[in-house]
Design brief:
single chain; alpha+beta; set domain protein methyltransferase, domain 1; set domain protein methyltransferase, domain 2; 2 domains; four-stranded antiparallel β-sheet; two-stranded antiparallel ribbon; binds S-adenosylmethionine
């Protein structure tokens, strides 16, 4: 038996001994590496709706409540004592769980979660680990270096997490184990951070009244709710079209959602309506089903420069008008997204996603801006009708300019994907940027359609006026 299967078997035995229930008459943990999906859980029988597939006792979850670290080093979770910066805060739920995970990982065999650590990943395909060349393939997409946040997480881990381990070797290392160097610790801390990003769950407290009780996935990653690593629930892969549900009660309970969960079907969790870029950033994979949620970010600056072009005005003139607004009055970025509906009660994506509008916020801001321009420069455009035309033309131009910011065209991307000899990361980057380009193209088409409709309405209006006069 290979190491992979041995680790799976030991994990399952450990899970049951930790009080977990797993319906192995209905399910199997499978090796899905052949399709780059690691481990997953697959039905080995037809499963009726609302069947409990497995349960996880809260004591089996790794969190600040279950690990001994909070007892052994309570001060680690307080605000730094000797910090001159009065604003420094205690670790948020992210930082706390990273510290707890480091502690349990460094305990090695002494950690009660050792067989669970043995099935957690050692390497990730999230962009935070990509080389400069690999990141170059994401140029133009929502996944900017700031969004990927490598520098930021490096800084946080170096200043807030690693020093706690370095100054408390007797707590973090079992007797006789040599402490890791600062650099090695940073590498492990990054690994734990990424594991949490892709595997942890926001835990609600089991209170039946909780609003979130129905959500197996909770999207808050901002440090407000307690995070925990939930063995077995995180062996489930996920998709936008899903078939299982996680209830947060006294125990966590995973149930089947579909009336027709057939033998051989993979049991799939739901991470939420995430665009491909976000799926890649947090989880290191993309799937076709998530494309309906793809988004593009259009900058106000790009719209302004398109506007300057359309109006044949120097950028400085628009800059002057801009100064009339308070900083908070003007949004810097606008999200373009389709109306994608919601999955139905059985986790199916049945809604036909469609781009119905570019961005109501952008349209409103543009209109307000053009009104201010008209006041400052009455001759800049004729009237309200012309203002509408300018809005459409500027947005169209900004969308087209955005299409040119990617390293390749949509056709080139399609051709690259067809060739098929791509690395996993390269392929995923192409899928992310192609998804954005398709949305931009839909945006351009929508603007063209709006322009023709407006033109037809104007013509109809003038014909009617002419007839009335006659
Ligand atoms: C919570 S884990 C799921 C278990 C994971 N497959 C394993 O072997 O440990 C989440 C990770 O699984 C992978 N994953 C989840 N859903 C996937 C899918 N539909 N296709 C491919 N990989 C997926 C991604 O690497 C993601 O970061």
């Amino acid at each position: 038996m290979g190491d992979f299967q041995t680790a799976t078997n030991s994990f399952l035995t450990w899970f049951k001994s930790a009080g977990g229930e797993f319906r192995d008459d209905l399910l199997e943990i499978k090796d899905l590496r052949a399709r780059d999906a690691g481990r997953g859980i697959v039905a080995i029988k037809d499963i009726p709706q609302e069947t409990t597939l497995f349960t996880i006792p809260r004591e089996a979850i790794i969190s600040t409540e279950t690990s001994k670290l909070a007892e052994r080093l309570p001060e680690a979770f307080d605000a730094p004592a000797d910090d001159e910066d009065d604003d420094s805060e205690p670790l948020d739920s992210w930082g706390s769980l990273i510290l707890v995970m480091l502690y349990e990982y460094l305990q090695g065999e002494s950690s009660k979660w050792k067989p669970y650590f043995d099935v957690l990943p050692q390497a990730f395909d999230t962009p935070i680990f990509w080389s400069e060349a690999e990141l170059g393939e994401l140029q133009g997409t929502c996944l900017t270096p700031e969004k990927i946040g490598k520098q930021q997480s490096d800084e946080m881990l170096r200043t807030r997490i690693v020093p706690i381990v370095l100054t408390n070797p007797t707590i973090f290392y079992p007797e006789g184990v040599a402490p890791l160097s600062e650099d090695d610790l940073l590498v492990v801390a990054h690994r734990m951070g990424s594991t949490i990003m892709a595997y942890a769950f926001d835990l609600d407290n089991g209170n039946e009244q909780s609003d979130d009780e129905e959500d197996g996935w909770v999207e808050d990653r901002e440090g407000r709710t307690m995070l925990g690593m939930v063995p077995m629930a995180d062996i489930l892969n996920a998709n936008a079209d899903f078939n299982a549900h996680i209830n947060h009660g006294d125990k966590l309970e995973v149930t089947s959602l579909r009336s027709d969960l057939k033998t051989g079907t993979e049991i799939l969790n739901y991470y939420g309506p995430l665009p491909s870029s976000e799926l890649l950033r947090r989880y290191g994979y993309v799937t076709p089903a998530h494309r309906v949620y793809d988004v593009v970010e259009l900058s106000w600056n790009s719209v302004l420069s398109a506007l300057a072009d359309e109006l044949n005005l120097p950028a400085e003139v628009l800059g002057e008008v801009e100064t009339e607004f308070d900083e908070e009055e003007l949004e810097e970025y606008f999200i373009i997204e389709r109306d994608s509906g919601e999955p139905d009660g059985e986790g199916r994506l049945t809604y036909t996603a469609e781009l119905r509008e570019i961005s109501p916020e952008l349209e409103e801001q543009l209109k307000t801006f053009l009104k201010a321009l008209k006041k400052a420069r009455p001759d800049s455009f004729a009237d309200k009708r012309k203002r509408g035309e300018i809005c459409i033309a500027a947005i169209t131009q900004a969308l087209t300019a955005k299409l040119e910011q990617y390293p390749t065209s949509a056709q080139e991307d399609e051709a690259l994907l067809k060739k098929g000899d791509l690395s996993k990361r390269h392929r995923m980057a192409i899928e992310v940027r192609l998804g954005e380009k398709k949305l931009l193209q839909e945006g351009v088409a929508l603007m063209q359609q709006t322009a023709s409709e407006d033109e037809a309405a104007t013509e109809e209006g003038s014909t009617k006026r002419a007839k009335t006069k006659a």
